[in-house]
Amino acid sequence: MRKVTLICLFLLLIFLTGCENTDTIEINLEYEEFIVVQANLIRGMDFEGVSITRTLPLEKSYSKDDAIIKDASAFIRINGVQIIPLHYNNDGTYKPLYKLIPAAGNTYELFAQTEGRSVYSITAVPSVPDPLSSIIRNNKCIEIEVMQNNDEVYGALWLIKSGTSIVDKSDDFQVIESGSTNNSPVTIRTQDFKKEYQNVEYLKNIYYKIFSFDKAYRDYFKTRINNTPIDNSLLYGGGSVIWNVHGDNVIGLFIGSCEGDLVKVR
Amino acid sequence: MRNFNIIRLLILLSIFLLKGCLENPPLVSVKYNINSTSAELLQLLEFKGDYINTSLAPSLITASEIYNSANTIFLDIRTNMEFTNGHIPGAININHSDLLEYLTNNSTFGKKVVIISSSGQAAAYYTSLLRLYGINNVFSLKYGMASWNMDFADIWLKALKNCYLLSTFTNRNFDKGKYSDLPGFDSDKNKTIEGILYDRINLLLKEDFYDDSSAYTQPSVSVEFDSYFDNDQFTNNFFICFGDKYLYYSPGKGEDVPGHPIGTVLYQPYEDLKSINFLQAIPSDKTIFIYCNDGHLSAYVTAYLRTLGYNAHQILFGANSLFYQRMLDPNNPLYRYAFSNSFIMNYQYEKGM
Q1: Which helix (H) or strand (E) holds B196?
Q2: Tens digits of per-residue pLDDT, B169-193?
Q3: Which of A138, A103, A127, A105 is CA-nearest to residue A210?
Q4: Interval A52-92: pLDDT, tens
């Protein structure tokens, strides 16, 4: 019996070690270019355009001019029908000829072609988040109940206000969440307050703001590198991040979002 | 029995672990494109300046502005007989289908090119096509030869009337419809979009602006309202009033006051035809008829829509052939668009070739 057990455990060990993917890292790793696409469609705000760039080899000194792709053909399509051509601007972005203000409930698709490659993404612009209640949890963070609406996801920031000015706010979202069913509450929380704010005096002036996003933002948020935001799309590329822009060697975010009102915690 | 259970458990465990070790399936190659020549054409027209939605359109020039002007080329697109019977001194008689070839093969740098027709509306249409192509020094003579001399003015003077169906018009507002896909048209897929635009403009330049023989079947580019329409056709087609509220609504209150044909939708110049606004609220599966105050701007718009593939047609003379009497009231904002003898300059003209 003991022998049988040992044999089985031995076999199991072989299986487990055999499954290990060993990546052989070669010193001369061939550079693979990625196209990086970035755009935010913020409800009610002038669309600032789509950035379409390429990653550069590590050994090459960075040049914005080399990274920016200037001759892509790009369009946005609204609700599967309305075509909005995009045009290259000198600031490196592709924008509509006229002001485009994303509207809640609309679906926006991005089509682009460059250097023989196709780029595609789709996003929905969410509605204004609807907070139901909020509490300060253990003087450390704010927990907010939000009404779940469609396929949206939510995040929250804390802010400290002095007079009419915002003097500080959280660096980032703590979590991006959604509820399981529509029209039911979902609880989200902010990052912890900085230590100096974890007292009654500051908590009197603490506010929060909820952001709603297209659901694809949650997967990106969970998988982004080192849990830091990708601010500079000209530099980042590859990895196990879940992007919502698709194409051969294409990464990026094309995301609809909505910023809620500044709300005082009661 | 106990051994058997252990072995069974180990096998199960191995299956779960192995499943986790399987390589991720390869990514499916993504091939998406907008797959629409009209969309690419729209992009190109916007890139070229989106002419139809700028204050450059319509590119009209009046008889008084070109009288005795230097550095102006007059291209008269009327028939040979009409040209022989009288034309602006120095004008060249040319068929509308040859306009693009002429302008690309002859230097017009530093000069204005003025397209001349009988009433100004055909010239407006072809000028719009040339402008969309990118020829920016071309203009159409407002009111055509009718504005040059009384001897040519009949074409306008006889068009001034209240149409037969005016009593069926309404002041009711009709909202713009649902968005639909851009229309398609035949094109050579092997060509660049610039090449496709050239072919498209050339094709449209070859079409006659008015063809009497097809008046009751397939409309030509332009139609006379009274000759073409009866009551039934209002609902089967899509009417665009291209102007402001003063053109759309007649003065006075109530829905029974005759403002526009039933079903007509108001499109405001310089705004509503933009791609971000209501261009695609124009149905791509219907015949579209467009009118404006005096037939010029609607001719420019008709050219633009036909370039994109819409089955668009212009209603000749605009409001002047729909409700001319209303326009004669000096208090009506449409008064300045009412054609009158004051628009006729009675300049001298030449005869013969």
Answers
A1: helix B193-206
A2: 999 999 999 999 999 888 998 999 9
A3: A127
A4: 999 887 777 777 788 899 999 999 999 999 999 999 998 88
Q: Which two tokens stand for residue B121?
A: 């509306």
Residue keyed to tokens 């003015």: B153
* Contact residues, chain A, for B32 at CB < 8 Å: 111, 118-120, 246-247
Helical segments of chain A, H only = 2-19, 64-67, 200-203, 216-223
Q: Do A113 and B275 touch (CB under 8 A)?
A: no
Residue pair A179/A216 in contact (Cβ under 8 Å)? The answer is no
Any A CB within 8 A of B157 CB: no
Helix (H) or strand (E) holding B16: helix B2-21
Residue with token string 């009610």: A44
Sheet strand arrangement including A141-147:
A131-137, A141-147, A185-189
Nearest CB to B275 within list A5, A84, A246: A84
Which ranges in A29-90 belong to alpha helices (H)?
64-67
Q: What is the Cα–Cα distance from B151 to B143, expressed in whole angstroms? A: 13
> Closest approach of chain A CAs to the CA of B271, in angstroms?
10
Q: How many CB atoms lie within 10 A of CB A125?
A: 25
Q: Complex ipTM, two decimals?
A: 0.86
Are the CB atoms for A39 and A255 separated by under 8 Å?
yes
What pTM value is reported for the model?
Answer: 0.86
Residues of B in contact with A246 (CB under 8 A): 30, 32
